[in-house]
């Protein structure tokens, strides 16, 4: 029997106000749910995209005190969908934040959390932009696999993680059929590497890759690439946005294609180490 799952990715242009960002995303989520999406995912930094370290850290709270974590759960329950909040920032014990994904069930309960493991510390050449995420964020320390709708085994990653194949290899060995990569990819690296890296992760894991993205020029002045995309287990782009504007990307996944791809290229047969939730 075919295992089919309709998913939707929400492309956003988040600013500094979490409530305003949620308000902007809500009509897109409603559109996706109305068109039959059972699982909806948003980008990295959904609730707030702010490269001003001091301002960001002064605004965040611990998870138990974070109103947005609760509000997105209520939204999942209202729509009756599985919802991946691509990431928000919650306070860590050392004064930095965690760049954390939340995966909600249709009743609004949090069924998984993932803290971004690989942090983006780069100088984009010459007069290019400098990013040092480790000054703002504490890294996560474990891979996360969760069961979602249609019994799908879902791996959670965030943005820069995509440059680190061992994480995806661990998820594949653990049985991941769909791996999310919510992102706020820079424009220079997006144009050069975005689709190529995501297709590579799909090919090597034999899993679907779904990457909801931030896009455009944001309130804090940062520019992101957009071009949200869904790639099948053979590395083919099956749905994608060709722009950086807010929008909805939807498609149906045939989860049986995962075993078909892995049967043709049996790289993941056998066991493998995996640090689970």
Give the overall form.
Answer: globular
Biggest sheet: strands, sense, closure? Answer: 6 strands, mixed
- The arrangement of helices and strands along the chain is EHEHHEEEEEEEHEHEEEEEEH
The CATH topology comes to Nitrilase/N-carbamoyl-D-aminoacid amidohydrolase
| Domain unit count | 1
Range of helix content = 25-40%
| Radius of gyration from the alpha-carbon trace, in angstroms | 17 Å
Detailed description of the structure:
With 277 residues, this protein is α/β, with parallel strands linked by helices. The protein has a single domain, classed as Carbon-nitrogen hydrolase (Nitrilase/N-carbamoyl-D-aminoacid amidohydrolase, 4-Layer Sandwich), CATH 3.60.110. 27% of the residues lie in helices and 28% in strands. The protein contains six helices and 16 strands. The chain has a six-stranded mixed β-sheet with strand order 5-4-3-2-1-16. A hairpin with a 5-residue loop joins strand 8 and strand 9. Helix 1 (18-34) runs parallel beside helix 3. The longest helix has 19 residues, at 187-205. It is globular, with a radius of gyration of 17 Å. The model is unreliable at 271-277 (pLDDT under 50).
Helices and strands in order:
Elements: E1 4-11, H1 18-34, E2 39-41, H2 53-59, H3 67-79, E3 82-91, E4 97-104, E5 110-115, E6 121-123, E7 130-132, E8 144-147, E9 153-156, H4 165-173, E10 178-180, H5 187-205, E11 208-211, E12 215-217, E13 223-225, E14 229-231, E15 237-240, E16 247-254, H6 256-264
Keywords:
277 residues, alpha/beta, Nitrilase/N-carbamoyl-D-aminoacid amidohydrolase, six-stranded mixed sheet, 6 helices, globular, disordered C terminus
